[in-house]
Amino acid sequence: MAMAVLPIIEAPDRRLKVRSEPVARVNDEIRRLLDDMVETMRVAPGIGLSAIQVGVAQRVIVTEVPEKTAEDQPAKATTLYLVNPEITWTSDSLVICEEGCLSIPDQFADLERPAEVAMRYLDRNGASQELKAAGVLARCLQHEMDHLEGILLVDRLSPVRRHMILRKLAKARKKPAFA
After folding, report:
1. Taking the model in full, what pTM does it have?
2. Is residue 48 part of a domain?
3. Is residue 68 situated within a structural domain?
4. Alpha-helical runs (H) found in the chain
5. Which residues lie below 8 Å from residue 16, measured CB to CB, with a gap of 6+?
């Protein structure tokens, strides 16, 4: 079956503020959603996507974070399918890095987050999995977990910075497509 590219909801759409519900069981419908989300994320392009960003209020995340390889090798990315993910541990060490979001196009902000996380989730076959992540993958997973709680990147910023980004987003929407 062909995968579909789903429309990505953009801020300030209220649907992005909804807390996502757990998935009762991983079935063909959830697997189709996971596949469509991966296709959507690749086309966007992005490295992570939560189901709420495509209008489905279920606890589902996909990520594809390029891994560093030898210098002469192209970076390869492992696709992760996470159903009902939960963070079970975060490191005490924090790092500040720039983040972007497919629901807040072309806007970036520095955020402080734990450097490492451990997670428990169900994979695309419904099997229980655990993983420990650092670097970009840890940041991506935390960002997508925020989405499942109805928290956006801008919600973690100062009111002034949040207002500035949302104003830029609104202004960009008003521009004609061929400007």
Report:
1. 0.92
2. yes
3. yes
4. 28-43, 135-148, 159-174
5. 9, 52, 53, 103, 147, 150, 152
